[in-house]
## 1
Amino acid sequence: MTLGRRDFVKGMQAAAMATACAPLLAGCRPPGSAPPDARPGVLPPRGAPESWVVSTCGACPGGCGIRARLVAGRLVGISGNPLHPINRGGLCSLGLAGVHAAYHPDRVRGPLLRSAGELRSASWEEALALVAGRLRDLRQRGLSHTVALVDGTRGLSRQVAGQFLAAYGSPNHLGGRSWNDIQATPAVSAMQGVDAASAYDLENARFIMAFGSGWLEGAWSPVGAARAYALARRGRKSGRVQVVHVESRLSVSAAHADEWIPIQPGTEAVFALGLVHMVLREGLENRDFIDQWGHGFEWLRALVLRDYHPDAVSERTGVPVATVVRLARRFASSRPAVAVGDDWNGPGAQPLQTGMAIHALNAVVGAVNARGGVLTPPPVPFDALPTPPSDERGARGRGAPAIEGERGRGGPAALQAWLEGQGSYPVNVLLAFGSDPVSLLGGGQRARAALRKPPLLVSFSSFLDDTARQADVVLPDHVYLERWQDDPTFTSRGFPVLGLRQPVLPPRHDTRHAAEVLAELGRRSDGPAGEAFPWRDFREVMRLAVRGIHRSGRGALFDVPEAEAWVETMERNGWRASRFDSFEEFWTGLVSRGGWWDPVYDFGERGRVLRTPSGRFDFGPLARSLEPSAGAEGGGSGAAGGPAGYPLQLHLYPLLAAFGDRQGPLPLVQDVLGREMEQSWELWVELSPPDARALRLGDGARVIVESDQGGVEARLKVYPGVRPGVAAMPMGPGGAPGRALRRALPEQAAALAGLAVRLPGAGSALPGTWVRIREA
Amino acid sequence: MSERAKGSQRWGMVVDLDRCTGCQACVTACQVENNIPPPSPEAAARGRAIRWMDLVPYQEGEYPHLKLRLVPRPCMQCDNPPCIKVCPVGATTKGEDGIVAQIYARCIGCRYCTTACPYTLRYFNWYEPRWPGDLGQALNPDVSIRPKGVVEKCTFCHHRLQKARDRAAAEGRPILEGEYLPACAEACPTRAIAFGDLDDPGSEVAREARSPRAFRLLEDLGTEPKVYYLREGEA
């Protein structure tokens, strides 16, 4: 043995230390540094072959382009695809930590079946036979409509799920609209009649009025939102955009605004209508838009002028009158201005009303389907998949009353109510397809109980999320790095984008592509569902649908930013921007560049953007909800006060860097959560200094936060950025932490509140969630 | 582009706080790139987490005029680094390219440097480096794993500079602007982190470092950081 220099010095040090402070060292060993199954890392061999694969991130709904770096067959790095128009080479924390997704210790390693209360490993044959047998049996008994599928996917996976249900015979394809990752906002659906999600042209707006904490932390595309923000601030010759943020907490979004309006939570609709009032009273509205496109405007105008005088608004929202007047003038005079936050989403009439009030603010200044306003991106021109054959049983099943109602607008709340016994028939099989319904319903006791109702709960999750943990069968999907998939999305300027996802790694465990498994279940169940899937694998489905894009001749493959202007000029003048000799050439380009997009937005497509019965922008639904007879008056009941003994209003906000996480809890992501609040690895609750003083609690105290639904332990953070009277808590990343890495932010704050629905889009005040705080 | 020979660049960084949203992509990019093991919750609670790049929040003012500033903070790569002066074994040095390096094999773990650094950007390895489950499969082969008992710090992803240098030398040309970027600058979704040669007057960093919005942290200490910030707001 040789004694190195360092060992020598260490030895000397240790000896000196030991004599000097032997008593101090007793029991002074550092605590365990890693989970028990942690291992030392081993680098790949030197000079091992290196390769790069272009694909699309799937860590959140954002759909950024990635380039994966492989060394010796190991995924050792992910960076952004510089050609992808959503992220242009950048990537967020979730996407970068994705290197760990495939190697995650909490992955489901093969099919699981529940027997005697426990999930145990099974073969694919066994698991598929069980589910297909049940499906066949139900169909033969004329109960195919009692099968429901909660869909968290988009694009072609969603189409395959739709085909499966159509052929099998069920109307219950849940997860449109308010469930979906990139949501069609209910407010826009109500006022414009469109089912598509909205884009906010922040890059071209001159003034941004943001409601709630959604826009930087809770955006469906964190990278897209961040890039739009940076461009609006520093990317334009016309100067720096001004941002005003309305929220009861100084969130990260609020901190980045020029002005923060700490509003009484739950009164955002009142504030928005107060601004509308001022815009109308001072004659600053956009008459062209209202006259040409508006419907039911006079009705709204009369109500708003009567009930939303700045004095009344100030009293209810806590915002000074002068601020209301000043901001209304500024909003109406800095065109284009846009109000962000109409994706307000949640149970009951009020979130919809808040969303509609915000969207109305956009409409009165003409910021709808206009440059710098709210846009409706056109869909990616896929070829339709072949219509599945139908038989009499299937038609009967499809004709049954649907859980989400005729127009499918019920959202998660409708499923919860149905499962709790309000439906006209019981749900016999629930398929959680790319989704975690337990977590979507809030993750609390009530959600768990509701999801225990269906006799067969099937999860397709790659991780043991909340739903998978209580499922009867788990048919694990590949993680996003192991599968073929399409990822249709859009940019903030409303340009449609198709990202292509291809396998970066071979499947690491005994998992299968969920859409292929669904097709296999269809083939095995009785009836025409078997004929609905003539393809072998999902790549073939993609090739089928992508032919539509090739044929349309529109748009271009991803390219350097400089190419955008070229494509736009060509298309605006009626030329094709790119030509391919064959479909194969197009497909090869698609795979190697990472996708396709069409950088042109046509502002003239009024029929596509306004699909209300009148063909105009409908102010009616908002006006109707504001009539005193409509009950929930003015969205202001949140200010009225909570049940006795619960003095604090709970404000849940999405966490920066965690929103929309679809993976298991990656330790590197856990480590960055809450850094902006100097918190890490555990749940916290924020109180204003006066509220904390009143409770005689100091920063860092362990407290119990209680609602009438139960309590949760958290650490107190005294934060002057919270409005007094409000307790603010972060909503955690989607999905529950799994076994080995089960730490931190465990049962989420949303679960604590027993909220009926977890809000995917907006994090601010939910009416009626009141809490109290006591020392633990 | 400068025509200077190898080793005569002065690499620096400019972080535009008006572009930065505080998303922490830079933090995670750094952890993945540099094989920094994820801390356990206990280690994080004791302030022993290693974050070469960290997001530091500053609160200013009082409700309702409170401001919250989020500042991404790598090693300042000082031109006059206090950490070097206190190292008893010469384990930390400033290279010709201005990058303050740490030589793990020489470090005896005395932690004088962690104390001397006014920005507290040096980190001691309190634990054996370990990764839960198979996460250690995803290690970057370009960066060595540090043993327990040594100090480590941001290197401006020096291994990337070596690669860029080799490539440029093989092609007989100088390193091009943008050819060498640390992982944080490459990942930043808003392009808030500019990186390049401060001695090249035409480079983006040199231009931005001269901006009226530019400032450096604890400038009065005379450490001459090569990391600049651009404050938010007009001008």
Note: DSSP finds seven helices and ten strands in chain B.
## 2
Amino acid sequence: MTSSIHSLPGADDIHRVELPNGIVVLARANFNSPSVVISGYLLAGGLLDPDEKLGLADFVSSALMRGTHQREFQKIYDELESVGASFGYNSGTHYTGFGGRSLVEDLPLLLDVMTDTLQNPTFPADQVEKLRAQMLTGLAIRAQDTSDMASLTFDQLLYDGHPYSRPDEGWPETVQAITLDDLAEFHRRYYGPRGMVIAVVGAVEPEKAAEEVEHMLGSWQNEVQEDAPELPAFEPPAKTVQRHHAIPGKSQSDIVMGTHGPKRSDPEYMSVSLGNNILGQFGLMGRIGYVVREQSGLAYYAHSNLSTGIGPGAWYVSAGVNPSNIDKAIALIAQELKRYADEGVTPEELSDSQANFIGRLPLSLESNRGVTGSIINIERYDLGLDYYRQYADLVRAVTVDDVRESAQKYIDPERLVIATAGP
Amino acid sequence: MTETITQTTLSNGMKVLLKEIHTAPLVSSWVWYRVGSRDEVNGRTGISHWVEHMQFKGTPQFPANMLDKAISREGGMWNAFTFLDWTTYFETMPADKIDMGLRLEADRMVNSMFDEDEVASERTVVISEREGNENEPHFLLGEAVQGAAFRVHAYHHEIIGDMADLHSMTRDDLYTHYKTYYTPNNAVMAVAGDFETKEMLARIKELYEPIPAGGEPPRLSRQEPEQKGEIRLSIEGPGETTYVQVCYRFPNASHPDFFPLAVLDSLLAGPSNLNFFGGGISNKTSRLYRALVDKDLAVSVYGGAQATVDPFMYNVSMTIHPQRKPEEALSALDDEIKRIQDEIVSEDEITRAMKQARAIFAYGSENVTNQGFWMGYAEMFADYDWFLTYLDRLAAVTPAEVQRVAQQYLRTRSRVVGTYIPTGGEA
């Protein structure tokens, strides 16, 4: 059998290079399939959007693939799709991410399309209008989606007054307000090599992959590249707040309720993460799933989520229920959150989740995409190249007391945020 | 594709397929049953899917909570899916723990309890699942189109079943369905990953061969009669977005026309991704995208077919541009279909479709779960050779065949056109 420790990425098989212009390149080989994945990010997220043009970063990232000085829209996609490759951008709050894959023989093409669209987008007017119509349709569909609207409402309540309260895709009126000049200006000010990270994983020698990236992107400079502003301070709501977003005509309502959570870099991250697994993920959705789905039959899905990153995280339960069962489900979930904060978890629950975290690691690192995501995670949060080799020890070091303390640090049953969307 | 697998049939009729893959310390084990919504009569629609839910409710040996705890503790991934023609269960686990998955599946092939209280609690869970689906315009439209396309064949209803039946089915209905179709002679086992074939086969025999064969499971054989004219329908619901779904008749997966049609689909709507795990590619250079989205008639268009036992559907789904009418998009679709029926496609276009398929297969081979999936999946509607020879058979497709199948299958008189008409945000 294959030795499991050997298959985890580490310092001896992740090739890491920092190019003179600031781009960090990570590469790891996997010759089991003749394919390759690239993925990464730049420091150009929705945080940089003015309120009245919210959605700008998202718009720019989508528009990169709509035409460059060398290639029109159809040519970009003709080159990719003709060889079964894919590539695209997406924008979040802090970052604009990119990702794609191809057969390994087409890696040069993938890198070429990436370089060209990153550096030379032209934002053609007709393509921008097509994209705008697609984005507006996307927002109209979002407005009808009970799960999306409950999440959006939750963020507005939890992060009231903080930039995280804003949806990165914006609103119909802010997307309408974005001009061609706005797109070009955003690209000029925020797209640049400083802070950019790219990972290449697949059937290619890591050194060669890094050389190819350097060949394509090593000369990229942006003298005027600006940094994102500092995040303001954050305080969760002082008492429980609840809001319903009405979407008439729907047969199911969504609930998103919870509170804030740690940053990825906080020392209690692992305790909270293990605790969250016990609360609403382990097995068939942990304690929450057991109470709401298995015991009460109230929902097809009911689970907890932990969203962590650069800034203050969110820790919340999601459930889809019949509109007549909203109050009942909220009461059950609130009761479980209180029990979790008051009593913590049992040693058996903790050891189950620790085993789960350690055992599932090889599975999460099986595909090129899985490995790419993991090594980007290492870079983004400065976890160290041997993070996945040390992971089991980090998981096992968490105690029942750690979980209880971290639960009490975040979950206050008197200060919950409760958002619902439905008829 | 050349690869070696071991195929055998146990004395009780259960087919077993094994494929060693030593790239990661993982094994993916799948048990497939030939039962799905095609085996359901009115009054019991959705029963196969509900039985699948009940299979997670425990046996005397593995009570409900013990099961998922045991698998999760080992870091395993497990799940189940119900489709038109089949129901499948899988566990992907660290290689040295897969025995638990093998034991569990052998046990719940015969020993699930279907406790009355569990049935009652799962009834509302399945109803909630259906209510969640009903929130989606695509579900509502798809259900209406499928119902119109199949009046006689049991493909007419959604896999989740009709709400009326979810309210009325009983524990005994469910248990009878389970006992009728969950037999080794109606099952296929497929295991892929980091194991030694000889040992694995011995263990499978030890666990599964004692399970006695059942009777030949009953099959409905109500063939759908030929459609005599285009059917148009509309449904109304909340929102601001108009959707159109056009469904044509499509042959079963073992039919030789499936392959020229796969090329046709690739040209029209972009290559369909048949992988279960491991994504596909975009379709922005496909003929329909260029005719509809590039021309501002739609904001997205997708097409695709399923590999099925009996003839099913080829669907084209369009999200209409907010400033356009659905008739305009439909008319552009008709023009493109006429073009591919009238003008012979080039060899280059077929070569391109071939390369796309080759890439999609390579992406799918990155994980053992998808490889386990393919062995059993292909057995459900053909056999594993179907998968192994897929690329060769695509490569053998000629431009003339593409034209012929376009003329034969993409006919207006045998299609259903469904429109979701939005009634606004304040429905």
Note: Chain B touches chain A through 82 residues (CB under 8 Å).
